[in-house]
Amino acid sequence: MSTDDAYDPKFGEYGGQYVPEALMPAIEELTDAYQRYVLENEDGFMDEFRERLADFGGRPTPLQYADQLSARYDTDVYLKREDLLHGGAHKLNNALGQVLLAKYMGKERIIAETGAGQHGTATAMAAAHLDMPCEIYMGETDIARQRPNVFRMRINGSEVNPVTVGRGTLKEAISETMRDWATTVENTHYVIGSIVGPHPFPKMVRDFQAVISEEAREQVIEKTGGLPDSVLACAGGGSNTMGTFAHFVDNTDVDLYAVEAGGSSLQVDEEEGVAPNSATLSTGDEGVLHGARTKLLQDSDGQIMESHSVSSGLDYAGVGPELAHLVDEDRVTPVNVDDDIALEAFHRLSQDEGIIPALETAHAFGYLEEHHDEVGDSVIINVSGRGDKDLEIAIEETAKRDLDIAPDMSIFERVGGGGL
Amino acid sequence: MGLERAFADEPAFVPYLAAGDPSYEASLEYVEALARGGADVIELGLPFSEPIAEGKTIQNAIVRALEAGMTPDRFFEFVEDLDVDVPLVCMTYYNLIYQYGESEGPRPFVEKAAAVGIEGLVVPDLPGEEAGPLRTACDEFGLDLVFIVAPTTRGDRLERMLEQVSGYVYVQARLGVTGARENVDDATEESLARLSDWNVPKAVGFGIKTGDHAERIVSAGADGVIVGSALVDIVAEGHENGDAVGAVADRLEAKARELKEGALRGGPEQPQPERT
């Protein structure tokens, strides 16, 4: 876990606490709780967190040697299997940590936002597990494209509140959850789903997710006797990314690649206020959004752009301030792949390794396919989540494209159903 | 620093409208109607795409203004085009201030705001902790920086805020986001009591809808009332019904008069001595 100061809100110039005054006392309270419970293990908080991650969550997740991909790329490819965590994504690490922390702090209600639904699902599961009432805000566009996760949240007893403003995706859901929090701050904890938002969220969420790289580091040393040449992770808000990088950041001979969503193009339509991508680290400018100074997709006036990705989980105009800082420091290399390459990688990993990845994860594998010559002789790649939630959209998006790798699904047409 | 003067003689009425809602021209007339109705200070919203402190009413106003083409540069033109003799305060979010001009940081925005006659800024997503660079720029160009005191602001935070406040302090009447309410919250009186020894005008906002609300707020110790959503509702209704701009402006003027008169009823019989 991190040993840096819970009371330092900045990563270089990034980070900070740009929120309405009404929230500041709660943020101060949370900072104290982060220091005491997470960093100092007061009342055995971290012991209980790790025990629950093991027994409820299923940690540690394996570090699997990928036979087919290693042969294909002539590189040793190791898969950190966060898709095998309870709920099917890395998101549970953070959700369980924050819901447990809220309980230690005496909070009575949990709220959260979600894009693809994985964070909402993880929060709903953690809240049910720890017996806390929970409401999740989700953009209506995302509700439409992520129905299985909406159902999972409801099954676990959480309310799902549709957000209809704007384009109805993660950006709007975060704003709406902040409005709820500003109203209910005295008894409610907001479980932010990534390393974004006001301090202490970026550090605290990173620390909860750092278990990924803590395990991966031990596992790769055990398997190979040393560290890998590269670590790859997909990057939206960045919690999976920083969780996967955290314990490698100090080893500067390990290259760290944050793979963003290039969407349909890296060009922006400033007139329409639309970026047809979510490549914030690669193309964004410094600004202030949702409580932090960070890199953003914004127009020249500072209005936030609508972003795009085939993957709802990466579809966000901001990114964690720590990642923005590490990119400026040349410690993390921001790269991106477009929707087409991600979708191809989705099929390839499914066929080659028997792992159906989340569309978020598929971006990292798309980069590996395109650039495997550049990542050295060994690479760890985080399988951040499983792709069951994305099947509907994968079917729809595959049908729009002429992908050689896509399976022939004409069986559906023969029996009267839809086809790929 | 000058905004204190608006609160010196009698309880002040401080209306808010989003500049450019629903169109540049109509909005000019609406703001001028508020001045005719008795506004002592006008808070002009410069619309930002992610207004996290606003409720539905003002969110929708911001969307209308953005769709009608409002930008920071257009906003400054708007201020120059206004024909009002009332101090103007710009209410916006920090990213627009930070991004304005060639160099990043708040100075170019504040310089321009001062040049067009803006006298103060309210920035809902900028707590005291992050306000240093903006405070410096405001001091350089003679603008007031108005801070919001929330019902949750207590103890040390209150003390620290007092050191930064100028112009007036915006007292948030209840937790949550902006929006008109049927009743005035008890949190208002508690908040005003906590600030009783502050030698700076206290203007209460969030939820004030009627002249009676304004009267009650002022009689509870406020030096002024801030009203946004109840006025934006009139703009929205007029827009949705396709009413003539003049008719909507008349309604705004009448509402402003009701609120100003309510505030006056809540005040002492005699004018208060001028504050220093």
UniProtKB/TrEMBL annotation, chain A:
The alphabetical list of record keywords is: Amino-acid biosynthesis, Aromatic amino acid biosynthesis, Lyase, Pyridoxal phosphate, Tryptophan biosynthesis
Which lineage? Archaea, Methanobacteriati, Methanobacteriota, Stenosarchaea group, Halobacteria
Enzyme class, first EC level, given as a word: lyase
Q: GO CC terms for this protein? A: cytoplasm
Which organism is this protein's natural source? Haloarcula taiwanensis
- Annotated CDD domains: Trp-synth_B
Give the protein's recorded name: Tryptophan synthase beta chain
UniProt-listed Enzyme Commission number(s): 4.2.1.20
Q: How would you summarize the oligomeric state and partners of this protein?
A: Tetramer of two alpha and two beta chains.
Which GO terms fall under molecular function for this chain's record? tryptophan synthase activity
- PTM N6-(pyridoxal phosphate)lysine: list the residues: 91
Q: Which cofactor(s) does the record list?
A: pyridoxal 5'-phosphate
Looking at the record, the residues that make up the Tryptophan synthase beta chain-like PALP domain are: 57-385
Functional summary from the UniProt entry? The beta subunit is responsible for the synthesis of L-tryptophan from indole and L-serine.
From TrEMBL, chain B:
Keyword flag Amino-acid biosynthesis = yes
Keywords assigned by UniProt?
Amino-acid biosynthesis, Aromatic amino acid biosynthesis, Lyase, Tryptophan biosynthesis
Record-level GO cellular component terms? cytosol
What pathway, per the record? Answer: Amino-acid biosynthesis; L-tryptophan biosynthesis; L-tryptophan from chorismate: step 5/5
Q: What is its EC number?
A: 4.2.1.20
**Single GO MF descriptor:** tryptophan synthase activity
Cleavable signal peptide: none
The record lists the membrane-crossing segments as: none
Q: What reaction does this catalyse? A: (1S,2R)-1-C-(indol-3-yl)glycerol 3-phosphate + L-serine = D-glyceraldehyde 3-phosphate + L-tryptophan + H2O
Locate the active site: 43 (proton acceptor), 54 (proton acceptor)
In the record, the note on similarity to other proteins reads: Belongs to the TrpA family.
Function (record text): The alpha subunit is responsible for the aldol cleavage of indoleglycerol phosphate to indole and glyceraldehyde 3-phosphate.
User: Subunit comment for this entry?
Assistant: Tetramer of two alpha and two beta chains.
- Official protein name in the record: Tryptophan synthase alpha chain
Instruction: Give the originating organism.
Output: Haloarcula taiwanensis
Q: State the encoding gene.
A: trpA
